[in-house]
Structures are given as structure tokens and as C-alpha cells.
């Protein structure tokens, strides 16, 4: 409780200083960090008082869910949210007969990266392929805004089959030749 009171006092100080100091940007950043900490602590207390099913219903709301994600309070893990998003994307891509598989959520230099395998896509149209990637990326980033990037991979392409057709019939030397009619 004392830490929250200290945070409130520091917020009041920063608001007063913002107009009086040339280092407004630094103060504003500190103000935002402190407000985030304050609101995060409040949300943590609220969700701690609620039954899990109520928290899950709140998390399903876009705004509340994103606030819970922002403060690391969402009841579903990042991987669970991405899995649900890929299920929804799979339904949207059903006409392309595409299948999706979550390969990994990896830490990268610029943030976490999601790798998704896209298999069985029927259309060879490049614009359809780009549209499928956009559906996947939008679904993942909506469900997990903390993700920095989505990488869609495809399995190696099967080599085209070489079709061998029978050639013209061979002549048997024992069979007499027929003259062509004109």
C-alpha cells in the first residue's frame, strides 16, 4: 500500500514539473511508467478478487483483454492466445484448404517472433498467398500484441512430376508396311 501512495505522490510531482522544466520528455516517460505501474497494480488486485471464469470473460473483451495483456495479467498464455487465433485464421482460410501449425514463439533481438507453418494451400496465385499471410499475421498480432513479428513458412515444394508419355508405335520388321492413303 505504501508503494502505491509513493507512486501517487510521484505522479503529482511530475505533473507539476512538466510545465516548469525543459526536460519534459524524460519526465513524461517517467510519468507514463509510474501510471502503468499504478494501474497494473489496481488491475492485479481486481482480477485477484474475481473468480477465474469472470476474469476469462473479461479477458475475452478486446479492450479489457489488451489491458490485461499489457500488464501481464491475462489468464491465457501467449501461446494459448496464438493457438486460438490460428484456429480462427484456419477457418477463414478454409476455402484455400490451408492448414496452420504453430512452430514456435521465439525471443528475438527486437521482441518475440512467432513462426507459423502454412501447408496445403491450393491456390498458386501470389496475391492469394499474400492474403493468406496477412490473415495469419493479423490474427496473431490481434491476439498477442506483445509479439514483434510473425513469420509464415511453407514446407519445401514438391518437385514437379515429369510425365512420360508413350511414343509412336515401333515398326515390326516382320509386318508389311501399308501405303498411306491420300
Comma- or semicolon-separated keywords:
182 residues; alpha+beta; GMP Synthetase, Chain A, domain 3; 2 domains; three-stranded mixed beta sheet; 6 helices; NIF_FeS_clus_asmbl_NifU_C; iron-sulfur cluster binding; iron ion binding; FSCA_dom_sf; Thioredoxin
Fold and architecture overview:
The protein has 182 residues and is an alpha+beta fold. It folds into two domains: 2-70, no CATH class; 78-153, GMP Synthetase, Chain A, domain 3. The protein is built from six helices and three strands. It has helices spanning 2-18, 24-49, 52-60, 62-70, 78-92, 126-143, and strands at residues 99-108, 111-119, 149-153. Strands 1-2-3 form a three-stranded mixed sheet, with helices on one face. It is elongated and about 110 Å long. It starts with a helix and ends in a 29-residue tail after the last strand. The mean pLDDT is 83.
In terms of topology, how is this protein built?
Blueprint: H1 2-18, H2 24-49, H3 52-60, H4 62-70, H5 78-92, E1 99-108, E2 111-119, H6 126-143, E3 149-153
Parallel strand pairs: 2-3
Antiparallel strand pairs: 1-2
Helix pairs in contact: 1-2, 5-6
In short:
This is Thioredoxin. With 182 residues, the chain is an alpha+beta fold.
Structural class by SSE content? alpha+beta
How far is it from the N-terminal to the C-terminal residue, by CA? 108 Å
Largest beta sheet: strand ordering:
1-2-3
Q: State the helical fraction.
A: 40-55%
* CATH fold-level name of the largest domain: GMP Synthetase, Chain A, domain 3
Mean pLDDT: 83
Shape: elongated
CATH class bucket of the largest domain: Alpha Beta
- At the fourth CATH level, what is the homologous superfamily of the largest domain? Fe-S cluster assembly (FSCA)
Strand content: 5-15%
Tally of discrete structural domains: 2
DSSP E strands, number: 3
- The radius of gyration over CA amounts to 30 Å
So, CATH architecture of the largest domain?
2-Layer Sandwich
Number of helices: 6
Q: In this structure, how is the largest beta sheet organized?
A: 3 strands, mixed
Order of helices and strands: HHHHHEEHE
State the low-pLDDT regions, or none: none
Organism: Streptomyces poonensis
GO molecular function: iron ion binding; iron-sulfur cluster binding
GO biological process, one term: iron-sulfur cluster assembly
Protein name: Thioredoxin
Amino acid at each position: 500500500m505504501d508503494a502505491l501512495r509513493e507512486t501517487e505522490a510521484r505522479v503529482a510531482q511530475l505533473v507539476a514539473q512538466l510545465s516548469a522544466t525543459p526536460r519534459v520528455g524524460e519526465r513524461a516517460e517517467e510519468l507514463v511508467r509510474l501510471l502503468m505501474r499504478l494501474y497494473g497494480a489496481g488491475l492485479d488486485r481486481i482480477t485477484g478478487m474475481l473468480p477465474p471464469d469472470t476474469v476469462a470473460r473479461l479477458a475475452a473483451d478486446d479492450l479489457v483483454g489488451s489491458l490485461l495483456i499489457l500488464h501481464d495479467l491475462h489468464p491465457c498464455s501467449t501461446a494459448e492466445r496464438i493457438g486460438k487465433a490460428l484456429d480462427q485464421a484456419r477457418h477463414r482460410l478454409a476455402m484455400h484448404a490451408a492448414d496452420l501449425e504453430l512452430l514456435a514463439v521465439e525471443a528475438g533481438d527486437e521482441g518475440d517472433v512467432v513462426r507459423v507453418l502454412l501447408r496445403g494451400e491450393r491456390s498458386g496465385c501470389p496475391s492469394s498467398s499474400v492474403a493468406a499471410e496477412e490473415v495469419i499475421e493479423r490474427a496473431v498480432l490481434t491476439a498477442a500484441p506483445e509479439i514483434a513479428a510473425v513469420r509464415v513458412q511453407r514446407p519445401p515444394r514438391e518437385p514437379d512430376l515429369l510425365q512420360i508419355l508413350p511414343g509412336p508405335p515401333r515398326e515390326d520388321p516382320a509386318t508389311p508396311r501399308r501405303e498411306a492413303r491420300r
